[in-house]
């Protein structure tokens, strides 16, 4: 039986990262959208009920799952209303803007007996899946140094909410949240953080550059994001006791989604070209004896929503729990504090 699903917001996030995985899915039925653009929704999604207010959607629709794609400063209020109405909730990253808000949502979801998950979809990037597999294979030996980049060439400030002052805005909360979540998946919580999160562009009023060091026992990890990278971009660089690995380029799924490529050709039938990396961007494993091209694993954002369906319908584990989303928020906040104070800060002390 399909899960009746509603979406709050009808902007880039909803249209690009969520709706394409609900359309043609045998597990979800999109029944409602909260939007201030009813004519646009009716034209593009005929048959889906449009509401101007979230409370009206919660009261009048029969949605079981609500996906929140509004700007992050509204996540807490919206998620609280949905959880209080005993709806399952998916929240676009970052989960919330403040640690106390995340703690409240974790507790409320547990009290209500419903799922609260954060959409850290880049756990299903092909490059990240490749790195996980390569580390697990032992070909790199013991990993000692990792760089994880999300660099772009965007030298001009754009007029959008993510680049304006406010709770949860700036590239560190926007893209750094993905890199932090991936780091936690690979290595768990670091012992300490040293961070530089600053505005570098002319007229920038929020963080648009970050260089964050995660300190582990016998492992250093760098998370880096710059708006001035016009050359081919390193995505991952990993150095271990047996060799090193370098991967260029970004996962193709976002560009496919922006181009209108559908992950599902029909109900239950995947697009055979979905999530496949360009051969020229395959990573290379370097050892003393040889160089080996490593085929990139296929990206698979659809697996997130498959896991959400399994969690709701079958009681399986939740992909990206609310607690995992909260851990990311804590590290985002700690990095900002480290940057402001200009010193290394203990993670253990902050998480107590």
Automatic annotation (TrEMBL):
Gene3D superfamilies, per the entry: Dihydrodipicolinate Reductase, domain 2, NAD(P)-binding Rossmann-like Domain
Keywords per UniProt: Oxidoreductase
GO molecular function terms attached to this record: nucleotide binding; oxidoreductase activity
Domain Gfo/Idh/MocA-like oxidoreductase N-terminal: 3-120
InterPro entries the record matches: Gfo/Idh/MocA-like_OxRdtase_C, Gfo/Idh/MocA-like_OxRdtase_N, Gfo/Idh/MocA_oxidoreduct, NAD(P)-bd_dom_sf
Coiled coil ranges: none
Domain Gfo/Idh/MocA-like oxidoreductase C-terminal intervals: 132-346
Family named by the database record: Belongs to the Gfo/Idh/MocA family.
NCBIfam families listed in its UniProt record: PRK11579.1
PANTHER family the UniProt entry points to: CONSERVED EXPRESSED OXIDOREDUCTASE (EUROFUNG), CONSERVED EXPRESSED OXIDOREDUCTASE (EUROFUNG)-RELATED
Name of the protein: Oxidoreductase
Native organism: Zooshikella ganghwensis
């Amino acid at each position: 039986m399909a899960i009746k699903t509603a979406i709050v917001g009808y902007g880039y996030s909803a249209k690009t990262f969520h709706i394409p995985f609900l359309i043609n899915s045998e597990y979800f039925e999109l029944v409602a959208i909260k939007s201030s653009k009813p004519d646009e929704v009716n034209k593009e999604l005929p048959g889906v009920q449009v509401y101007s207010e979230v409370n009206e959607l919660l009261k009048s629709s029969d949605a079981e799952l609500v996906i929140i794609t509004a700007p992050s400063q509204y996540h807490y209020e919206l998620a609280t209303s949905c959880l209080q109405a005993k709806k399952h909730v998916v929240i676009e990253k970052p989960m919330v803007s403040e640690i106390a808000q995340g703690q409240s949502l974790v507790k409320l979801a547990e009290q209500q007996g419903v799922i609260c998950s954060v959409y850290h979809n880049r756990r299903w990037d092909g490059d990240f899946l490749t790195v996980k597999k390569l580390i697990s294979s032992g070909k790199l030996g013991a990993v000692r140094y990792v760089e994880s980049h999300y660099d772009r060439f965007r030298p001009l400030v754009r007029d959008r909410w993510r680049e304006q002052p406010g709770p949860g805005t700036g590239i560190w909360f926007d893209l750094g949240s993905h890199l932090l979540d991936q780091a936690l998946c690979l290595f768990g919580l670091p012992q300490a953080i040293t961070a530089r999160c600053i505005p570098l562009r002319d007229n920038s009023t929020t963080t648009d550059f970050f260089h964050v060091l995660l300190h582990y026992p016998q492992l250093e990890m760098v998370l880096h994001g710059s708006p001035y990278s016009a050359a081919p971009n390193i995505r991952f660089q990993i150095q271990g006791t047996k060799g090193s690995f370098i991967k260029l380029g970004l996962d193709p799924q976002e560009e496919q989604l922006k181009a209108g490529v559908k992950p599902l050709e029909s109900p239950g039938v995947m697009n055979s070209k979905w999530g496949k990396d360009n051969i020229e961007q395959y990573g290379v494993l370097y050892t003393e004896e040889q160089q080996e091209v490593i085929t990139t694993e296929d990206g698979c954002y659809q697996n997130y929503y498959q896991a959400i369906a399994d969690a709701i319908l079958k009681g399986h584990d939740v992909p990206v729990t609310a607690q995992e989303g909260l851990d990311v928020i804590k590290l985002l906040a700690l990095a900002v504090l480290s940057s402001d104070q200009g010193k290394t800060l203990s993670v253990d002390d902050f998480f107590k």
